[in-house]
Amino acid sequence: MAVVGGGAVGLAVAWRCAARGLRVTVHDPAPGSGASHVAAGMLSPVAESYFGERELTALLVASAARWPAFAAELTAASGVDLGYRTEGTLVVGLTGDDLAEARRLWSYQRDLGLPISPLRPSELRDREPALATRVRGGAIAPGDHQVDPRRLVTALRTAAGRAGATLVAGGVRSLSDLDARVTVVAAGCGTAALTGLPVRPVKGQILRLRAPDGGPPGFRHVVRGYADGEPVYLVPRSSGEVVVGATVEERADTDVTAGAVLRLLRAAVDLVPELAEYDLVEATAGLRPGTPDNRPVIGPLPGRPGVLAATGHHRHGIVLTPVTADLVTDLIVTGQPGSPAVDPLLAPFTPERFAGQRRSG
Q1: Angstrom distance (rounded) from CA 298 to CA 313
Q2: Is residue 195 domain-resident?
Q3: Can you list the alpha helix ranges (DSSP code H) found in the chain?
Q4: pTM greater than 0.85
Q5: Most C-beta atoms within 10 A of its C-beta, which of 106, 179, 264, 352?
Q6: 272 and 215 inside one domain
Q7: Predicted confidence (pLDDT) per residue in 75-99, tens digit
Q8: Torsion-angle region of residue 217: left (phi > 0), alpha (psi -120 to 50) or beta?
Q9: How far is the C-alpha of 272 from the C-alpha of 347, rounded, in Å?
Q10: CA–CA separation, 178 vs 171, rounded Å?
Q11: Domain FAD dependent oxidoreductase spans what residues (predicted)?
């Protein structure tokens, strides 16, 4: 089999399939250099759940539940520390309006049965003294964790190689060029050109800061929220790095703009003032693979025997890596890569929903 795309999802599919005895080749000119390289690595099924996205939320919850075992297995298979952390996520509002907007979403999330608990300002600062005194309130999502995506890609590449997968450092211009019984397209924003699926680039600008003394950041939890209407997230790493993100732009360039950097830094410092003294070590932009309905595309392509998609994850590629890899691998190993989805969890995400929108690819 062939996997087109060497990001987190493609490498995870390759690792799982190779570990189950398949002969796997991964094709990518620069593995891990796309959305996975820029991603923050939040595993946030609760904080990322949004109005009207119940089926996506169910997939996020299912994949997040697999992450502890997935991380342990991958660390054992690769010898790489993934930077997997389980302190939970604080969701906060800086102003009264920010808090009102956040509470509206918390109510929806709690109605879905998701674990999120409102906290008073004093309780917030007991958990994270670094939060600004201006923060009006917040909530904790204890099951929303984090991982370092760059370490994740390194680990997946190592584990896939040890399981027998082969990496071909080159791009694929047409699926017909591949000599494989089964092909998995995990090419992110390159999917449309290969398959005709309506996957488009969605630009995201993101910053990386570092504590000035070289030590760990002065806060432990992932902090997400609104600061005067500006959405922002702060992801602390034990290495001293803090990831600050991210914009969502319907653009296909990867230019970093002064305005985006300004907005992200202002919102970050409003929530955690000590970040004003941190070093700005990286400002980058990447392209998320988006779809018209904001859902990933997972499963066999109609009319393309032996071709499966594992793409279109938009903001959720890292958290959805385990479930995507498991579902795709199960489809392939059962010997039914051209059959309808065999797992009801997969049904809302199959490529069939775009059958009338596909261009020739």
Answers
A1: 9
A2: yes
A3: 8-19, 35-38, 54-78, 96-111, 121-127, 149-162, 191-195, 258-271, 321-333
A4: yes
A5: 264
A6: yes
A7: 999 999 999 999 999 999 999 999 9
A8: beta
A9: 41
A10: 11
A11: 2-331
